[in-house]
Design a protein that fits this description.
single chain, 180 residues
């Protein structure tokens, strides 16, 4: 009799363990507040880097440096923005999918937007890296064209938040301190 009870208890333990594992695997993603906190924590250093890039780029365009110095600085700045965008994209990916209706689409939208921005910075850096520095006017005209293209690509990659119809996420982004 004890053997039957022990066997039954063992089977029950296996069934319960399996149910717990299945529940964990099928569990929904982070709450809207937790997801918004993670996303904003990922985007705050990214925004700071982009702001620094914008300021530094403007300084490089007006500074009294040689084209070779400006080229080196701009390539480094755009490389930093490219890396910062990838880091932010990776952190948003690590945040998971928010537990809201259409959470997968919302998460994918953020990641896609950051990947597009990353790629735009990479292309701008590569374009500037390919410019000759022998003639200053030609070099700076090329830089201006690269920056204009970057701006267009950047604008095109912006996340369309009008499609984010989750009131829970909107509220979370408004309420969590990391998003202010």
């Amino acid at each position: 009799m004890r053997t039957c009870r022990a066997a039954a208890a063992g089977k029950l333990t296996v069934v319960l363990a399996t149910l717990v594992l299945l529940a964990a695997c099928g569990s929904s993603g982070p709450s809207p507040r937790a997801w918004a906190t993670s996303v904003c924590s990922a985007l705050t250093p990214w925004r700071a880097e982009i702001s620094k890039l914008t300021s530094s780029t403007n300084q490089q365009m007006t500074a009294q440096t040689t084209p070779a110095q400006a080229k080196e600085n701009l390539v480094r700045l755009f490389g930093g923005a490219e890396q910062a965008s990838e880091t932010a994209r990776r952190k948003v990916e690590q945040a998971g999918v928010p537990n809201v209706e259409h959470g997968a689409e919302v998460s994918a939208g953020f990641r896609t937007s950051l990947a597009s921005m990353r790629d735009a910075y990479g292309r701008a850096g590569a374009t500037i890296d390919g410019l000759g520095t022998g003639e200053a006017t030609v070099f700076y005209d090329g830089v201006r064209a690269a920056v204009e293209t970057l701006q267009q690509e950047y604008d095109a990659s912006a996340l369309d938040t009008t499609q984010l119809n989750s009131e829970e996420l909107k509220r979370a982004f408004d309420e969590v301190p990391e998003c202010r």
